[in-house]
Amino acid sequence: MKRVLRADQVSQSPSVLDQHSHDESYHTPRRPDAVVFPESTEDVVHIMQVSAQFRVPVVPFGVGSALEGHVVPVKGGITVDTSRMNRILEVRPDDFLVKVEPGVTRIELNEALRPYGLFFPVDPGANASLGGMAATNASGTTTVRYGAMKDNVRSLTVVLADGSVIQTASLAAKSSSGYNLTGLFVGSEGTLGVFTEIWLKVVGLPEHIVGARAVFETVSDAVRASTAMVGTGLLVSRVELVSALYIDVFNRLEGTDFPVHPTLFLEFGGTRGAVESSVEMAREIAADEGCQRWTAVEDASERTRLWKVRHEAAHTFMKQFPGYGHMATDVCVPLSKLPGAIANAERLLESEGVRGSMIGHVGDGNFHVSLAVRPGDKGDLERANAVNKGLVEYALSVGGTCTGEHGVGLGKRKYQALEHGNALNVMRTIKSALDPDGRLNPGKLIDA
């Protein structure tokens, strides 16, 4: 490899190999044989050519913030760390487009866009790399208004398994020409190619932002309110549910005094008049569904404090269990099925005796369960896996999916046949056509 890259672009240092042996999931780490740090599309082409020549697996790596073992090199080989490909290549404010390399992080991009009055809206919480976000079809708290990465990637430059380079689409806002390759590659989790340039859609910064908190007696009341707010067409940018257990933990560990009830955290953005109208209508909808307490704030620092409990929920939950591992899982269901899915999750946690709690993007039917698991305790892991299995089976039974945003990776691979049926064979045919040797991130997503 050092024959085609500089010596400082290749590492077999034990500490570097360890850093790239895992993500933030509970899955067993596995070191790659080497880590390479490309700085251009041409570098990635050379890497793929070496991989093809010697039949060596390749695993793309962003910042390692994935939650389902996506970047664990289960068969060793080369980990391609894109952190040095971190340039913002072009900003087109009049087209609401920006071209970036995959190593640029979400926060870096938004800092660069601010002088243009623009921002990139997809917010998975972590300061993830945009390449990793595209690879996993990341979404997050703003999905209810702006969609996931598939809705915000205009085109990709991709290096394929044989070292050839393609651009997946034009820069036009719409096209009826050819297959939707961009949609195919976004969410492919590094199994079809390595991204080297990404054209993203960006939007204007809202003139006025208001945050709000609505406290309810039950989860069903909160979900009905959130569904009505979305259905009414309000300028709601975020609709997040935090369970009573999370609220209780946050109060105890962070010294807050929030009511210990299911709570919606909301954000509205747009022109001042439109936002004020949306906030008032949202308050009325919440009241109709039994809201016990409503709080709205405009000041940026006050909004930050308001949202702290949602943004830090998982980390705060895990503070109760020092030395435990964090198993994070998610499913997504049609909105009408969300109360039942959450009730099912509560039953599973109780019946299996697993330490866990829930937060959710209730505006789009996606919710997360955090599980505290003792490392090395086989019984604990089996109970946590039983909860995960029960969540997925219920979601699929009501027309949902095994993962709304975490992705498949290693953890949800076993549910692919159950969810997709014969369509999984089509996916494997595509994989085989683009990567006949199975070198790109093997053992993930749709692999048997």
TrEMBL record:
Its EC number is 1.1.2.4. Its cofactor is FAD. The keyword Flavoprotein applies. Residues 28-205 form the FAD-binding PCMH-type domain. The keyword Membrane does not apply. Signal peptide: none annotated. Residues 1-32 are annotated as: Disordered. Keywords: FAD, Flavoprotein, Oxidoreductase, Transit peptide. Pfam families: FAD-oxidase_C, FAD_binding_4. Residues 9-18 have a biased composition (Polar residues). GO terms for molecular function: D-lactate dehydrogenase (cytochrome) activity; D-lactate dehydrogenase (NAD+) activity; FAD binding. Residues 19-32 have a biased composition (Basic and acidic residues). It is an enzyme of class 1 (oxidoreductase). GO terms for biological process: lactate catabolic process. Belongs to the FAD-binding oxidoreductase/transferase type 4 family. This is D-lactate dehydrogenase (cytochrome). It comes from Alicyclobacillus ferrooxydans.
